[in-house]
Amino acid sequence: DASDIEKGTYPHYMLKEIDEQPFVIRNIISKYKEEDESIKLDEDIRQAMLDADRIYIIAAGTSYHAGLVGKQLIEKIANKPVETHIASEFLYNMPLISENPLFIFISQSGETADSRGVLVNVKEMGHNALTITNVPGSTLSREADFTLHTYAGPEIAVASTKAYTAQMAVLAILAVDTAKAAGIQMDFDPLQELAIVASAMETLTDQKEQMEVIAREYLSVTRNCFFIGRAIDYFVCLEGALKLKEISYIQAEGFAGGELKHGTIALIEEGTPVVAVATQEHVNLSIRGNLKEVVARGASPCMISMEGLQESDDQLVLPKVHDYLSPLVSVIPLQLISYYAALHRDCDVDKPRNLAKSVTVE
Ligand code: G6P
């Protein structure tokens, strides 16, 4: 049938979509680039970002994890306060809303009911809304004031991969555009740096055998797995844990490295896999310290570090990219390791039990 043709030679959509990420990033670069190499963005969106005194990012699932990275990017690059909220919680526990807020909805499908519920409410309150979505013309796109397209192409596998990296790429571009419009000087060119990211992604998608070995060694018999990171790496750990849960049904949790000792470390037993991610110099030593603490209690450590920070016994070294964009690269091995873990456990990779690609009920 048609879906077989679309999958081409790939056994699963998820693997195809993981592999497509370098192309998606290059596509985003070309769609957001003016002829003079500057950022191409709707003037109304630029103005709405400038006018906002605070940004509220609303999303669910993997898109929420992209929103956590988005907060970091917009605050660090554009110097504007941002809060990221889980869509299904927002209306039950509404934060104080600033005088001139801008709401940013991040949604692959543009159809998530939890996110739409918030959009309808904030529009009623008279606020501006921008939707970042892979489906322009979707409900969230039509009902918001503005849309930014993630240009990732259709994502079929239930577990989101390319939409997540595409969302973060667009958020980085948006953050820099806002900073420039506000007159903030910087030497970070997101379009150039994203091109480096695309190549780094390719290097990693070419290392599938290594990822399969890691999945086999660490995840073939375990019942749980922990992901630890600090700062921006922590957000990627949340996404890595979600991927593993979704498709392999291994109980997984992402933790801030320093928080382990306040509870989770009680779960560490002989052989418990702990994946640690270190892409930022300022957290490299402290996350390695956390890993040593769990190793002393029997954990099997899998250290993933970025080039320049690696030590000789690290399991995987990521090609160097700009610190701001490291999540786009560090997530690739986590996606692939989850994929192979699910495969080894005979799980239905593209259609995991109990999950839907887009959840249109609250
Ligand atoms: C569902 C999917 C997740 C996705 C979430 C949000 O739960 O299974 O993969 O992250 O919805 O979807 P959205 O389309 O709003 O990004």
UniProtKB/TrEMBL annotation:
The principal localisation class reads cytoplasm
One MF term in the entry's GO annotations: glutamine-fructose-6-phosphate transaminase (isomerizing) activity
The entry's active site is 357
From which domain of life does this come?
Bacteria
Question: Where's the SIS domain?
Answer: 45-184, 214-352
Q: What class of enzyme is it?
A: transferase
Which reaction does this chain catalyze? D-fructose 6-phosphate + L-glutamine = D-glucosamine 6-phosphate + L-glutamate
Q: Which of UniProt's keywords are assigned here?
A: Aminotransferase, Cytoplasm, Glutamine amidotransferase, Repeat, Transferase
- Cellular localisation: Cytoplasm
E.C. number(s) listed in UniProt:
2.6.1.16
**What's the subunit arrangement here?**
Homodimer.
What role is this protein assigned?
Catalyzes the first step in hexosamine metabolism, converting fructose-6P into glucosamine-6P using glutamine as a nitrogen source.
> What is the name listed in the Swiss-Prot or TrEMBL entry for this protein?
Glutamine--fructose-6-phosphate aminotransferase [isomerizing]
Organism lineage: Bacteria, Bacillati, Bacillota, Bacilli, Bacillales
